[in-house]
Amino acid sequence: MTHIKTAIVVVVIAMLLSLVFMYASLMSIISSTRSNTERVLDSFVMENATYIYNSIKNGHNFTGSIDAYYYISKTSSELSLDFSGGMLYNRTEQGGFNFRMTNPQTFFTVSNTLNLTTTYDLLFPIKFAGRTVSELRVPVTVKVSYNLK
């Protein structure tokens, strides 16, 4: 009977450790995609800074919206993701998904600062015994502000 209790304790501890490691891995991916998204927004502003500044200075919005294709291609190259079926994704060496990312939606507002907001969802496969049993959807919002000088 003591062997059964020991086995149950070992299995429970292994499951808890597995959850802790999975949580750490997911948080690492979320953090890196968030920082890379901020870098893509910075790149967009730097490439278009003169145009943006002159348009705002003249009292106009610099564009109706940020070019979606430009932003998706920049995000894809910055995060080393592939694009297919309306999703950006990262594959494992065996061909499965590490994670998938919905197309980022980017909006801006101007009020003495240029505020860019990007929203997207990260989808992580939840696996058990080598099979995907579910997907975990994590919504991510990245906001960056730039002071107009």
Structural commentary:
Helices cover 45% and strands 36% of the residues. It is of the alpha+beta class. It has one domain (2-147). Strand 1 and strand 2 (87-91) form a beta hairpin.
Q: What is the SS-derived class?
A: alpha+beta
Tell me the total number of β-strands: 6
Average pLDDT metric: 81
- Provide the β-strand percentage band: 35-45%
The number of distinct structural domains comes to 1
Silhouette = elongated
Figure out the total of helices.
3
N-end to C-end Cα span? 74 Å
CA-based gyration radius: 21 Å
Largest sheet: 6 strands, antiparallel
The SSE order reads HHHEEEEEE
Write the layout of secondary structure elements.
Elements: H1 2-47, H2 49-57, H3 68-79, E1 82-84, E2 87-91, E3 97-102, E4 105-110, E5 113-128, E6 131-147
Antiparallel strand pairs: 1-2, 2-3, 3-5, 4-5, 5-6
Helix pairs in contact: 1-3
Brief rundown of the structure:
With 149 residues, the chain is an alpha+beta fold. It has one domain. It contains 3 helices and 6 strands, in the order H-H-H-E-E-E-E-E-E.
Keywords for this structure?
6 strands; single chain; six-stranded antiparallel β-sheet; alpha+beta; 149 residues
